[in-house]
Predict the 3D structure of the following.
Amino acid sequence: MKFYTASLRQALVASLALVAKFAVLAVLAAPNLRAAQQAIVKTGIDVLASDQCTALSGRNVGLITNLTSQTTDGRRTVEVLAAAKNVHLRALFSPEHGWNGDVDAITGHTIDNTTGLQVFSLYGEVRKPSDSMLRDLDTLVFDIQDIGCRCYTYASTMSLCLEAAAEHHLRFVVLDRPNPLGGIAMEGPVCSSDRIDFNAAHSLPQRHGLTLGEMARMITGERGLKIDLQVIQCQGWSRSDLFDRTGLPFRRPSPNIRSLTQALLYPGIVLLERTNLSVGRGTDSPFEVIGAPWCDGIKLAAHLRALAMQGVTFVPMSFTPTSSTFANEPCSGVQIAITDWALFRPVATGVQVACVLRDHFPAWQHTRFDELWKDQTLYQSFTTGAKASDLLLGAKPAVELFRLRRKTFLLYE
């Protein structure tokens, strides 16, 4: 009897262990299955190419693009359209940072070596396509990877090209791409319509949660542009997904956004850039480090860590930028480490950092802070000592109104 009892006990233990093993494997497999499902996300150019570019059949096309515009398997959009027998590719246009996305300055016109076509720069003397640039075209195609931040200028280039297309009665086709910061979370402030400029394409929050296809629909609808707009949608992208869930390769959209981490930090940290503070340009970690010769990194990190912000922490460090603000000057500051991408809120983080600098570092000069913040009323509150929580709360009504405004133009669940 003891033998059977012992054997039964051993069998039961073994069975429980096996069940536990499969349970653990199931838990481990769940995110892998999710990742596998997300790996089939297709961008607009993938969808267009899979349909032999039928949507552009017989069209005389001008393509607005840069190096980020590639199929999942690495073919540049310009190569796909040039090879399509039913598409007549006539002209090329490049945004800020140039045709290959590697120039951090004003760019001039150039020639594409693959097609021999002229590449018209839209980040030089001309930022909106001229009559001569649009000659012989009946369609403009836009394919550029954005990062989901209001002051990133690719959206402004798209906005100006939409206006040009409306004026010249051209069809406008957006080959859509996922918003790397996801499509749900939004953070203010919202730029008012009277402050729209090249660093604010439309009346948007700093983190807007739109794809460029959705933004094109919003700009066209809210401005009443008379235009034949078509968006070739992504397939398989969910609004809840940040870029890491898409399975797509991250191709740096500009010289100083070299990783998804930097893209996530950008909407908040860029707000500090026009002040006397280095945001890491000229280092290996732009937008991941901030500091200045007048700063005390240990003190700054202590104040920021005391706030216990969700999804982020701060580590004191020293660095010397080789270019940009404080070039070749030793700076003391902090490295910003994202600990949870889902919980992290970049704009809220940037506002908290600004308030700590204002309250504890009198050498910080913030007179240009509102150039990218773009809310004079809230900036005045900031200058008189308002808490970060009050500033964020003050931006919330406009963000909630934007949430209602954008509903009509959304394309993804």
User: Anything to note?
Assistant: The longest strand covers residues 312-319. Confidence is low (pLDDT under 50) at residues 1-38. The two ends are 62 Å apart (CA to CA).
